[in-house]
Amino acid sequence: MNDAASALGSNFGLIFVVVFLGIWLGANALVSVTGGWRALAQRYRTDLPVMGNVFRFRSARFRNFTNYNNCLTFGAAPQGLYVSVFWPFRISHPPLFIPWTEISGRRFTTYWWFERMELTFPRVPGVTIQLRRKLAEEIIGAANLPQALRLLHS
């Protein structure tokens, strides 16, 4: 018994790291599936670096009340919207690049105290991204294209 406790004690650091990494990987995968990032990545995954005007450490809500708080990077390029997660959370969350022509928007609605725009993706039904009004206007204004600007007036 004493030998088992001694062996556990001497390997505690290794056991802790393995358990922590397992929980980290599992939690990231669960959030990716629940929020819809995985579904978006199946269609819009990219290996390109962020393009256009960049908005770092921003927040958004995905489906099923999955919140990404202050860990997202958005890029507003003429061709589309770039979205990525801060590197420690990138496991199960590859960067996305979504053409403006494949994004639909709903008018601003109030959720709690904040006005939000809900982005939908006809080719990935059931997945939504909600952006606070200020961020949505910044991103869409930075793109400055009819395809993006139509989202403000849909």
How would you describe the overall organization of this protein?
This protein has 154 residues and is of the alpha+beta class. It has helices at 2-10, 12-35, 37-44, 133-143, 146-149; strands at residues 53-62, 66-76, 80-85, 96-99, 104-105, 109-111, 114-120, 128-132. Strands 1, 2, 3, 4, 5, 6, 7 and 8 form an 8-stranded antiparallel beta sheet that branches. A hairpin with a 2-residue loop joins β6 (109-111) and β7. The model has no long low-confidence stretch (mean pLDDT 87).
Short descriptors:
154 residues; eight-stranded antiparallel sheet; 5 helices; elongated
End-to-end separation in angstroms reads 69 Å
Task: Give the rounded overall mean pLDDT.
Answer: 87
Largest sheet: 8 strands, antiparallel
Rounded Rg: 19 Å
SS elements, strand count: 8
Please report the number of helical segments. 5
- Taken in chain order, the helices and strands follow as HHHEEEEEEEEHH
Strand content: 25-35%
- Contiguous low-pLDDT stretches (5 residues minimum) are none
Helix share bin: 25-40%
Helix-strand category: alpha+beta
**What gross morphology would you assign?**
elongated
